[in-house]
Amino acid sequence: MKTPVYSLLPLLLSLSHLAASVSIDCQHIRVDGKKFDLSKLAGRHSVNVHDTSRPPAEYNTTWTIDLCAPLKKLEGIRDQDQCPHGTRVCGVVRSWNPADDPEKKHVEVENVIPVAGNFESSTGASLDPKVSRLKAQDANSDGLQIEFNGGNYNHMKQKAVVQLTCDKDRTGNEEKRKRSLKQKRDGEDSEKDKDKDKDEQPSTPSLTFVSYGQVEGKDKMEVLRLNWRTKYACEDYADSDEARKSGWGFFTWFILIAFLGIAAYLIFGSWLNYNRYGARGWDLLPHGDTIRDIPYLFKDWSRKVIDTVSGGGSRGGYSAV
Questions:
Q1: Partners of residue 29 on adjacent β-strands
Q2: pLDDT tens digits for 11-37?
Q3: Could you give the percent of the chain with pLDDT greater than 90?
Q4: DSSP structure string for 271-295
Q5: DSSP assignment of 43-84, as one string?
Q6: Secondary structure of residue 34 in the 3-state scheme
Q7: What confidence category does residue 124 fall into, taking pLDDT thresholds of 50, 70 and 90?
Q8: Among 46, 80, 133, 205, which is most exposed with the fewest C-beta within 10 angstroms?
Q9: Residue 163: pLDDT above 60?
Q10: 153: burial class by Cβ within 10 Å (0-12, 13-18, 19+)?
Q11: Are strands 29-31 and 34-36 parallel, antiparallel or unpaired?
């Protein structure tokens, strides 16, 4: 017995709602009619917090976030020293004793905090992202606020609140670029790159730590707050000339999709003709006869166009004697 199509609509709607609740499309974010593209901020971004309030040990907490995808595991680091698969926001607390270990040769991982992510297979919690405009909180503000959920640490729910503040002079990727340039300099030892990097980089980081701790409420919850200054959070950036130049236009996508579609059709058709009929050469291609006739058809069509343009039709088909 076939299932009516209309009976599947509720299932499809529920699946689309579920997909939206466990992920976020960085390239197509729309809030209150405003469009944002945060895909340029994709990837691993970190901010470090140094704590010396509990001597004799010192603590360094690294908060790492990927807005657009789960964090990838780092090679060379034990799994127990990293957040589990599906994590979007992670905190790793490391400690050392500067009196006994001034060169930090014996740094220990104290805590691993999965703040937010999709953990349906383990705890059943989802990312459940919530995006809002900063103007909803303050009419003079410009940017976005993104909330990520799903984490649990020490039997306490976790949440990350990231405020992306509009700053037209920053991309938000300065720290990542600075690290890549540093690695390049370490390999090439170029003083010229050092001077260039110093001139281009802002004096303060774009991604900064605000706070982390328990908040008052019905449920016990710890909230991590980060601030991220970037031009991609500006409400007018999507309509700017820079955004249009950086994105592909409709015709570019159309040509690319058409090319891939034709290539897939020819490859599949050739494979089918080879396996079904044992075809070789031109016979492999679907509609091979038509393809071979294209040059001749184009030649005949060009000749007709030239005859029409030359005005031969004005004499009713007769030539002058």
A1: 36
A2: 444 444 444 456 789 999 999 989 999
A3: 49
A4: HHHHHHH---GGGGSTTHHHHHHHH
A5: S-EEEEEEE-SSTT-EEEEEEEE-SSSPPPPPTTS-GGGSPP
A6: strand
A7: confident
A8: 80
A9: yes
A10: middle
A11: antiparallel
Tell me whether strands 58-65 and 108-117 are parallel, antiparallel or unpaired: unpaired
Tokens 């920053």 belong to residue: 170
How many CA atoms within 13 Å lie on the side-chain side of 199?
Answer: 6
Q: Both ends of the chain: CA-CA distance in Å?
A: 78
In terms of Cα–Cα distance, which of 96, 20, 12 is closest to 59? 96
Token digits for 82? Answer: 């990293």
Going along the chain, which residue ranges are E strands?
A: 29-31, 34-36, 45-51, 58-65, 87-96, 108-117, 130-133, 143-153, 156-166, 207-215, 221-230
Query: pTM for the complete prediction?
Result: 0.66
| Whole-angstrom distance, CA of residue 155 vs CA of residue 164 | 29
Token reading at 256: 């690319």
Cα 7 to Cα 91: distance, rounded to the nearest angstrom? 45
Residue 28 and residue 129: Cα distance in Å, rounded?
14
Which structure tokens are listed for 253?
């996508």
Whats the size of the chain, residue-wise?
A: 321
Residue type, 109: V
What DSSP string describes 196-223? HHHHHS-SS-SEEEEEEEEE-SSS-EEE
Measured CA distances, 107 to 3, 16, 57, 91, 169 (Å): 61, 45, 10, 16, 37
Under 8 Å CB-to-CB from 25, ≥6 apart: which residues? Answer: none
In this structure, which amino acid lies at residue 273? N
SS3 content of the chain, % helix, strand, coil (to 5): 35, 25, 35
The residue assigned the tokens 């197509």 is: 28
**CA 167-173-179 angle, 5° bins:** 140
Per-residue pLDDT tens for 65-78? 999 999 999 999 99
